[in-house]
Design brief:
By secondary structure, this protein is of the alpha+beta class. It has a domain of about 60 residues. It is built from three helices and six strands. α2 packs across α3. The chain is globular, with a radius of gyration of 13 Å. The protein starts with a strand and ends with a strand.
């Protein structure tokens, strides 16, 4: 699976949080923890979730299974908020 940010999203990065504004719908969100990490990974081009998971395994002291669960829960939450595009490969 590949994911990317939707184009009509503005982002401000703070120390512990990303503040994002969906310009199309006029909604804003605060992203923390895994959501923030994922948001910073994807930018506006599609990125393979396998690559993200591999990078997270190097940086976080958790098992691959735990990180995969965190990653897919974050993807689901961003998709529910209509902030990302998903492309199955």
């Amino acid at each position: 699976m590949k994911i990317a940010r939707k184009e009509e999203i503005a982002t401000t990065v703070l120390d512990q949080e990303c503040i994002i504004l969906d310009l199309k719908r006029g909604q804003y969100f605060g992203l923390e923890n895994a959501l923030k990490e994922l948001w910073l990974e994807i930018e506006h081009e599609y990125k393979d979730t396998k690559i993200i998971l591999t990078k997270w395994k190097k940086h976080f002291n958790q098992t691959e299974e735990e990180l995969a669960q965190i990653l897919y829960e974050a993807i689901r939450e961003l998709a529910d908020k209509q902030l990302i595009k998903i492309r199955d490969i």
